[in-house]
Task: structure prediction
Amino acid sequence: MLTTMETVSLTGPLDTAALRRAAAPLTVTVDEEARGRVERGRRLFHGLRHGDGGADRPIYGATTGFGALVGYAGRAKEDDQCDNTLAHLGAGQGPDLPHEITRAALLLRTWSLAQGLSGVSTDVIDRLAEAFATTFSPAVPRYGSVGASGDLIPLAYATQALRGRGHAYLDGRRMPAADALAAAGLRPLALDGRDALALVNGTSVTTAATALARDAVRDAHRSITALTCLLADLLGCDPGFLDEDLLHAYGHAGAVDVGARMRRTLAGVTPSGTRPLQEPYSLRCAPQLLGAAEDALRYVDGVVAADLGGVSDNPLFFPGDTDTGRVVHGGNFFGQPAAFAADLLASVTAQLGNLAERQLDLLTDPARNGGLPPMLTRSPGLQHGLQGVQLASTAFVAEIRRAATPAGMQSLPTNLHNQDVVPFGTQAALRSYDMAELLGLLCGSLALGLRQAVHVGARRPTAPGCAELLDALIDVIPPVEPDRPLDEDVRVAARLLATSGLLRQDAPGPKRRVEGRTPAT
Result:
C-alpha cells in the first residue's frame, strides 16, 4: 500500500510542525515564487562577483579565506573554493546527532536559502528538496560548534554527506554517504564556494534543536498541568487554590491561563473534606509555578518563531538601486537569541521536573498521601511497588539540574580572536533537547504513580476530565502487582501523554469503565 507523504512549501512561514514532520520522508515543494527568489539572488551574486569592478570587490567566502583568515585570498577556482570552505571544518567529535534534529536543521536551512538572500544556485535547493523524499540523513557529530558563526562544523558534515563524503543514514542504517545517496537514488551535490558557505554559515542546527526541545517541554507542561489536577482529585483536595479571583490578584497572565485550564479539568470535582486547610506547595502553588513556566515558554515561542522566519547566514545579497544590488557582511549567524531562549527553557525544564518529582514523592509517602500504603504497594516489604520508579525520578531530576547551567553567557574567545565573543547557542539547544527527554520520563513516572494509586485504594476521580485521563492510563498500563520492571511502563505513559490529544481538550469525553474506590457522598 502506498503511503502519502506530508508536504512542506518553501514559500510561506515554516513552523515546528514542519520540522517534526521532517523526521520522516516528506515532499518539499519548490514553487515558481521560491525559484524566482533564488534565481534573482544568484544573479545578484554573480553580478557583484563577476560584473564591472567585481574582481576588485571582496566578497567573504567567494574571494577570501575564511574566519580569521579572511584577509588572505581564497582559491581561484570556484569548485576548489567549495573544498576550501568545507575540508577544514571536518573536526567534529562525539556521537551523531539524532536524525530528527539533523533533518529538521536541513529543512530549515533549505527554507532559509530559498528566501533568495544567500546567492545560492537553484540546483542546491532542488537537490535538498529531493533528499527529503527519502530517509537519507547525514551523520553529524554532536561536538564542535560554538554557535557564533552559525553551526559551521555540524552543517559542514551535513553538506559533505550530501556531496557523498563522510557518512549518512538510510532507513536507519549508518553507511558511507556515497552509498546512501546511491541507494536512495540521489545525486551528490555539486557546489561552488558561495553554495558551500551558505549551507554552513547559519544557525539551523541550533534553531532546530531549540524548536524541538520547546515542543517537548510544552508537551510536558500540559502533561504536568493535567497530572496535577488528577493528583488533587485522587487525594480529595479542595480546588480553592485555583480560585479565579485569587489568580487574577496575582497579576501574571500565565498563572491566570493555567488556572483556568486546571479549573476546566477539575470541573465537577468533589473535595473529600479530609485534607488539611492548606496543601503542600507542590499542589497549592502549582498554578503559580506552572503559570510562570507558561510565561517563560511564551518568550521562547517568540524566539523560535523569529528564528524560523529569519535568514542567518553571511554575507547576504539585497536588490539595490543598480542592477547588481549590494552585498552586506554582518553577523546574523550569531545565535544569541536561541542561546538565551534555550537557557530559559532549561530553567523551565528543571523546575517542572522538580514539581513532578515532588508530587510523585508525596504520592508514595503514607504520611502525606491520605492513607495510601508506602510506595503504593499492598504488601510493603514483600513487594516494593513504585520504589524503583521514585528512585529513578530522583536521578532524572539530578541529571536535569546538573545540565541546567546556562550556556549562553559562557563565552570563550576563539578563531584568533575573530570570534572573540560567542553565544554557545548550539550547546544550549542540544542540552535543552536532552533535558526535555528526561522531563518526559518524569511525567511518565508521575502518571504511573497516579495509575497505581487508584489500584491500591485511592478514590475514583470525581471530575470527569480527571477520570478520562485516568482511564486512558489504565488502558495502557496494568496495575503493578506483583512487582515487575517498570521502565517500559514509564515510557508507555510518557508517550501517551506526549501524543494523546486528550490533554489538548477542555471538554471530557464519554464515560468509561470504573476502577478505583468510589468517593463517599
About this structure: Residues 506-513 have pLDDT under 50 and may be disordered. The two ends are 55 Å apart (CA to CA).
